[in-house]
Structures are given as C-alpha cells and as structure tokens.
Amino acid sequence: MATYLVKVFISYRKGVLDPQGVAVEKAAHQLGFTKVRNVRVGKYVTMEIEADSPEEVKREIEEMAKKFLVNPVIEEYTYEIEEVKR
Amino acid sequence: MKFGIPVYPGSNCDRDVGWVVEKVLGHEAVYLWHGERDLKGVDCVIVPGGFSYGDYLRPGAMAKLSPVTEAICEFAERGGLVMGICNGFQILLETGLLPGAMLPNKTLSFICKFVHLRIENDQTPFTSLYRKGEVVRIPIAHAEGNYTCPPETLKEIEENGQVVLRYSSPSGEVSEEFNPNGSLNNIAGICNRRGNVFGLMPHPERASEAILGSTDGLKMFQSIVEGVVRA
Predict the structure, then answer these.
(1) Multiple choice CATH, A2-83, 3.90.870.40, 3.30.70.100, 3.30.1280.10, 3.40.50.170
(2) Of A15, A62, B95, B161, which has the fewest beta carbons less than 10 angstroms from its beta carbon?
(3) Chain B residues whose beta carbon lies within 8 Å of the beta carbon of residue A43
C-alpha cells in the first residue's frame, strides 16, 4: 500500500461560456495585458489516496469524477498522480 | 393531499414552501430529512431553494448524493410528481432527472428581483391552471441560474415542449434584454419528457400571497393539487 497525491484540474468544456473567465480577461486587458486570450477559470482539487498501484488510483479518481466530482454537461478534467514519499 | 419537502443542510426555502402548502392551500406538508430514505407516502415532492451543503463543488452536487435524493429519484422514475425550485432545480439537474446544467449568471452577481415569465407549456401537472402565453410575475434569487445544455439537448427539449417558462418582458416578449442571467433561449423552467418532473429558477412560493407583492405563483401549487385530487 502506498500513498498517492492526486491533483485534479476541472474546467469548463470548450464551447461552454465561462462568465468568470470573460471578466478576468477584460480586467487583464484593462491593466495592459492586451495579449491575453481565452481565459478560463476552473477548480483545482488535491487529495491523497491509499492504493496498491497508480492504476488503482486512476480507477478511483475516474469513478469519483463520474459520480460527482465533475459535471460532464459543462466540465472536463485532467489529473496528475504522484507517489508521496514520507 | 400530502406534499413532501426535503430538507438538506443549507436549505432555506423549505418552510416557505411548507407555509404555502399548509396555510395558503390548506394541505399537508411533511419535511423529509436529507439522511432519510422514507418519503412517508407523499403525493408530490417539492425540492426547496437554498444552498444545500453550502453549494460546495457545484450547486446541487452534494445534495444529489443524499439518501432522500435517491428516494426522490426512484419516486420520479415511478411517475411521482417532483418540482424543484431554484437550488431544488439545480439538484434535479445534477441528478440527471432533468437535462442540462447551470453556469454562474452572466452578470457574475447574485440576482434577487421580480421578473416576468411567459408560460410556454400549460399541459404539465405544474402549469395546468395557466394559459399558454400568459405572463406571470415571480421573483428570482440566485447566482447560478444561467441554464445551459448541449445543442442537441436544446433542440430536443424545445421540440418536445419541455421548456415550460421563459424570462420575458411584461407583455411576453422574449429577448436578450429580458434575460437576467444569460440562460439559453431565456429558459427559466423545464420539465422532463414525461412531464412529471419540473424545475424552475423563480420562486413561486414567494409569490403566493398578496402581501408578498404577487400571487402569480400560487397557480403552480394549485395545478398540482387539481391534478392529484382529480386523479
């Protein structure tokens, strides 16, 4: 059994209007960051999972995403897994 | 008849709905605690507004996992009448009983005001006492009521008459000018294909007594009663 740190990045799917992203982009332009484009604001979730292998972590996280962590109608996600060395 | 009102941690319109059911309509209201699965033999479930579980993760995302919500889903699948108001609507979307999802309002602000709504479908158990095209005045109070869904879903719900309410002008004109939150096609309320599950962002329980400034929401509750009592 090992401990794995999982970092989940959740954002709105392509094509879904992100009102926060639009507001942040406007603010960036007002401040002179005129080259900024396509700002998207999302969520960042970290968690630790006890498992025998990264594959098991992968299964857990994808099951969790399907059940409630992500709403597939509007959101998509990616994740990273790393073993925690204590 | 007997109305069931689930109560989640953070629900705050449960008593308002209960008040309308008991004091205004003269029917029975039972509160259903989120941790219980027993719907106590109710004839209709009204999922109230509020901020269930603090709206953590997404509005309704936590509440959909509650035992009472599972029981409500089974009730709906058996044909039971379920109406979700505001956060209740968001919960029904999360469960998948209704199609689509909510985004933050295009204004990025919490909007609390009276709006006008055009009745688009008067054939549902929740709107049978209205007339199609009628305009009603009912308040909204939400930060995430910007309804969205994939284009194919939108086409389907439009063609099936599942769009029940649209934000409009006082005379019934539907345009971007009268869209408070950015909702697709000015959608304020939808039902499922079968018509027994209905969700809306406006609060009819806040427009069911003259002292509150409008009684336009009362017919939603009366429609339910009419349908159940007649059957």
Answers:
(1) 3.30.1280.10
(2) A15
(3) 57
